[in-house]
Amino acid sequence: MSFTDQEILETIRMVELETLDIRTTTLGIDLGDCADPHLESACEKIYAKIVHQARNLVSVADSIAADYGVPIVNKRIAVSPIATVAAASGAEDLTPFARALDAAAKEVGVDFIGGFTAYVHKGFTRADRALVDSIPRALAETEHVCSSVSLATTRAGINMDAVNIFADAVLETARLTADSGALGCAKLVCFCNPVEDNPFVAGAHIGVGEGETVLNVGVSGPGAVRSALARLGPEADLVSVAETIKRTAFKITRVGELVGREAARRLGTVFGIVDVSLAPTPAVGDSVADILELIGVERTGAPGTTMALALLTDAVKKGGAMASSCVGGLSGAFIPVSEDQGMIEAVRLGALSLAKLEAMTTVCSVGLDMVAVPGDTSAATLAGIIVDELAIGMVNGKTTAVRIIPVPGKGPGETVDWGGLLGTAIIQDPGAFSAEGLRRRGGRVPAPLQSYRN
Amino acid sequence: MGRRFLTAEDVRRAPGAELLIEADTVVTPQALEIARAAGIQLRTEAGEWSSSAPERGPDAADAHELPEPEGSTGPGTTVVVTVVGRNRPGVLAEVTGALGAAGANIDNISQKMVDSFFHLVLTTTLGPEPFAELKARLECLGGEGDYVVRVMHERVFSFMHRV
Hints:
By secondary structure, chain A is of the alpha/beta class. In chain A, 44% of the residues lie in helices and 19% in strands. The longest helix of chain B is centred in the middle third of the chain and has 11 residues, at 91-101.
C-alpha cells in the first residue's frame, strides 16, 4: 500500500506537533467471583485476580506504542462496582477493598484503578451505604483508586437522599485530603446515566453487563482538531467547520481502533470500545476551549459557546462513529475546567461562570468536571449544584457527571494548583443563596416522562 | 467448574500436607506464603501447581486464535521512515546505509527542503531484521540539533488514511 507524502506528513504532524495520543488503554476486569463472606479473603482475591489479569497490561501498551509510534499516555484498570463485590462480606468499612485495589494497581504499574463504585440511583443496599460512607477514607488512604456513584438515571429518576449523602462524602473527602488541595475529590465523581464501559477516570468501572475481561480505549486529540480548524481559517462556514472536525475525529479514532484491537489481541482478551472523546490536558494547545474560540466565540463562556460546543461534540461523534465498529464510553468533548488552559484562562478573565458552564454541560459529553468551589461551600449548596446537573442528564437522556472540589481554606478567585494532568483551578463562586430546602426534603425525584419532548 | 481462588483462609483449613487444586486456580500471595511456611504442597492433577496464564473469560475464548494482523512485523512489512533536521552532507547516506545494513529495501523516497531544513520520507520493506531492531538501529542516528529519525509501522497510515 502506498501513501502520499502529504498523508505521511499529516500523521507525523498529528503525533509530533498536535499531541495526538491514545489517552488510555483500560482493562476491565469483572470481580464478581471475588465475593467472600470473609473480608480478608475477599480482598486477597481481588488483589490476586487483578494482578493475575493485568500483569502484562503496561508492557503490552508500551510495546504497541513503540511499534506504532503513537504514545499511549495512561494504562488503567476498571473493575466491577465494589459495593456488589463487598456485599457478601457484610463489612461496614470498605476501606480495605480500596487498599487491595490500590496495592494491585501499584503492583501492575497502572496509574489509576476505577471501580470503588455503587449504583444507588433508586436506593441503597447495606453494602452501597457502606461504600459511600467509606469513600472519604478510601480516597484519603489510597493513591490510585477512583470512586464513582450513580445517583440518577432517566429511567429511575434522581435519588435526592443519595445526593445528600454524596455531598457529605465530597466535603469529608476534601477535609481528609486538605493538605493536597482536596485532591481526593479529583478522584470522586457522581453520575446520571453512567456508562458501563467508560475507560476514563474518575468514572471508570465495568458494569454488570460486561464480560470477564475487556479492553477499552480512550482516544484524545483536541490539539489535532484545533490545528485543523486553524488551517481552515475564520472565513469558512459552519458546515465546513463541522466537516473539518468530523474528518479529524475520524483519523484520531482510527488510531484508537488500531491500538485497541492490537492491545486486545496481544492480551488475549476482547476488544470492547473506543471512547471517542476530546480530552484536554494542561499542555498548551491541547485545549477544547481553544477549539470553541476558533469556531467563533471570543472567549469560552461568551454567548454562542453552547452552540459551538454542541457542533463540536456532534461532529466528533459522527467522525468517530464512522471510524470504529464499536464506539462507546462517554464519547464527545470533555470540558474539565482545571485541565484545560483555555478554560482556566476563560475563568480568570471572568468570561466563564459556573452558570454558563452548567449550560455548556447540556451539550458536552460529561458534565461539571474538575470545578473548584470554596472550601466553606455548604453541603446543601453542593447538593444543589449536583442535583441540577443530574436533572439535565435525566431529562435529556444523556450521561452527566459532577466532579467538584471544595478546596479547604480557599475563596472565590483564588487559585489551587494540583500539578500534572489535573492542572490548575480558579475557585468559582457558587453564589450566596442556598438549596437547604431541597436538601431537607430528601426523597426521590420520579423518573421523567419520555414523550412530549418539548 | 473448580475452585477459582485459593485464599490464606482455605490453606489454614486444609487438612493435610498436600492440597489438590485446579491448574487455573488463582492462588493469592497470602495463601502461597502460608502454604510455604506450613510446608503444604499445592498440587494439580498434572503435578506441582504453578501460576498459569490468565483465563480471560468465555468471550475471549477465540481471542488467542486471532491471526497476526496483515503486515505483521516480519520480513515484507512496509515501514515508513521519516527524517527531519538541518541539512548537511551525509544524512541520506547514513540513513540509507543503516537501512541497507538491516537488509531493508527502499520502495520510495522523497525529500522537501524548507530553508536549511529537510524533510525526508522513505517507504521501505523489511528484510530479515525485525521491526523493533530496525527501529532501534535507525532512531539512534542523528541527535539533538542534527536530525531526528522516526520509524512507524505502515498500519498506522493505512488505518488513518484508507477506509
